[in-house]
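User: I'll paste a sequence; please echo it back and then give the predicted structure.

Assistant: Echoing your sequence first, then the prediction.
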Amino acid sequence: MAEIKGGLGQAGPRQRRGEVALISLDRAGFIARARRRAVPGHILLEVDGTWTADPADLDSDDDAETGSTAYHDHANAYIDALPADFLVVGIDCRR
């Protein structure tokens, strides 16, 4: 991936920001990123109707995934704080 035009650390025409972020992480960082993203998905619909989206999927995040990291931290904290009798549902839609 580092050899794809654009090189390591910057998005080229064949790279997406998430891929650039992945190749710049060490093993511990890669594992932490995967754990943070394991449950919440790309969009969170909260009980009160608040709709929050991962900015990386809207192509509006920086290469360091600052907004995406904040989204996943928020989503995980929200899910962790739900009462034990709540059911969390994940939906994956494809065209």
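The two ends are 27 Å apart (CA to CA). The beta strands are 43-45, 51-53.
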